[in-house]
Write a structure and sequence with these properties.
Layout (H helix, E strand, L loop, with lengths): L2 H13 L11 E5 L2 E4 L4 E4 L2 H4 L8 H11 L12 H12 L5 E5 L2 H20 L5 E5 L8 H6 L16 E4 L4 H7 L4 E6 L2 E2 L5 E2 L2 H14 L2 E5 L23 E4 L10 E5 L1 H4 L15 H14 L4 H22 L7 E3 L2 E5 L4 H10 L2 E2 L1 E3 L3 E4 L7 H18 L1
Parallel strand pairs: 3-15, 5-6, 5-7, 7-10, 10-11
Antiparallel strand pairs: 1-2, 2-3, 4-12, 8-9, 11-12, 13-14, 14-17, 16-17
Helix pairs in contact: 3-10, 4-10, 11-13, 12-13
The structure holds pyridoxal-5'-phosphate.
Pyridoxal-5'-phosphate (PLP) binds next to helix 5.
């Protein structure tokens, strides 16, 4: 390793809190599906800032919108109306089940808002005993105290006890377990249409349908956490569009700002009206800069034919990955939808990620279960072929 990276790592370790197991590299430039580190090495970026840079780096429309906004005003306040925020809310409402949007700055905050809204709604309509949030085992919903409690994995919760009360857990894709765990106390059920951090595990259609039916029977709200699956990642604007099931609340973040931090919580009017002025807020939420970026991202994705293109490229990539999985007999089939793909590996996950990096391909290993592929959704066939070739080389030497 050369001195510039080493120097950065030393400086970083001295002053940055030690919350991440970081790879020994620093990325400083990007264009499309490519990124460069401080040493000038070039990588194909199939991590995309963990499903954030879905239109690739430096997308001209996103850059233009941000530049234009910096010359006008960066931040005002939700004490006033914000034109870009209204435009982005309109785009989201016109293209989803929802009627109203609350803006914040991250996925955890969006889910925190969803949990608060669900509790307010349940109490207003059914009384004080309806407050429980039912989530799924192996899920991921964020790192605030409430969202890490909703996260159905004890490794994220250890050391933070006492955890907030009123959370329960059911098994993904087990309708009978869901039926047992949902009760009159349940205010909401929160589901990722595809578990992302948990290892790219899709919720099955009949499970989602059962969840919808049970929620309706019990007067509980159905929340879809589309922080990772949403905003084009699966080849539709929202992943739940692949099913016939609509939620009452949906959360977004990651790809929504094209790299600028933003989160959103969307709901039907009936539900959203449980919030009154003063009930929930965020200083930065939906600020002029973040929502300018969000509008640019959605405008690009909503262009005619955009998602058809994404779906064709993603189907090609998945088939190529499956060919490799067959060739090297790695076990379970490649899973996921669109460009949220997981290649399950029972062994050598971290080694594979490292070997790919050395050959110029960035991927990661999600949930200790599967290689995760989340390239920019406008990645080209040539770039896909390049990634597949690198994977082939790596597997032929490692397996
Ligand atoms: C990333 C993620 C979150 C948390 O988002 P942050 O912006 O890191 O707070 C929540 N839910 C899901 C499904 C995620 O993938």
């Amino acid at each position: 390793m050369s001195t510039e990276t080493e120097k950065l790592i030393q400086e970083g370790q001295a002053v940055v809190m030690n919350t991440y197991g970081r790879l020994p590299m620093a990325l400083v430039k990007g264009e499309g599906s490519w990124v460069w580190d401080v040493e000038g090495n070039k990588y194909l970026d199939f991590v995309s800032g963990i499903a954030v840079n879905s239109l690739g780096h430096k997308h001209p429309e996103v850059v233009k919108a941000i530049q234009k906004q910096t010359e006008e005003i960066l931040h005002t306040s939700n004490l006033y109306w914000i034109p870009n925020q209204i435009h982005l809310a309109k785009l989201l409402v016109e293209n989803s089940f929802a009627d109203k949007v609350f803006f914040c700055n991250s996925g955890a905050e969006a889910n925190e808002g969803a949990i608060k809204l669900a509790r307010k709604y349940a109490k207003a309509h059914y009384g004080n005993e309806k407050y429980e949030i039912l989530s799924l085992k192996n899920s991921f919903h964020g790192r605030t105290l409430a969202t890490l409690t909703a996260t159905g994995q004890t490794k994220y919760q250890a050391g933070y006890e006492p955890l907030p009360e009123g959370f329960a857990y059911a098994e993904l894709n087990n309708p009978d377990d869901l039926k047992q765990k949902i009760t009159d106390k349940t205010a909401a059920v929160i589901i990722e249409p595809i578990q992302g951090e948990g290892g790219i595990i899709p919720a099955e259609l009949d499970f989602l349908q059962t969840a919808r039916k049970l929620c309706d029977e019990k007067g509980a709200l159905l929340i879809f956490d589309e922080v990772q699956t949403g905003v084009g990642r699966t080849g539709k604007l929202f992943a739940h569009e692949w099913s016939s099931v609509k939620p009452d609340i949906m959360t977004l973040a990651k790809a929504l700002g094209g790299g600028v931090p933003i989160g959103a919580m969307l709901a039907k009017d009936e539900v959203a009206s449980a919030f009154k002025p003063g009930d929930h807020a965020s200083t930065f939420g939906g600020n002029p800069l973040a929502t300018a970026a969000g509008c640019a991202v959605l405008k690009v994705m909503l262009e005619e034919g955009f998602f058809e293109d994404v779906q064709e490229h993603a189907a090609y990539f998945k088939a190529e990955l499956q060919k490799l999985a067959d060739k090297y007999q790695t076990g379970e089939p490649v899973r996921g939808i669109g460009f949220l793909l997981g290649w399950p590996l029972a062994k050598l996950g971290p080694e594979t990620v490292n070997a790919c990096r050395e050959k110029g391909l960035l991927i990661n290993f999600a949930g200790g279960k599967a290689l995760r592929f989340v390239p920019p959704i406008n990645v080209s066939y040539e770039e896909i072929d390049r990634a597949v070739k690198i994977l082939d080389d790596v597997f032929s030497s490692l397996w």
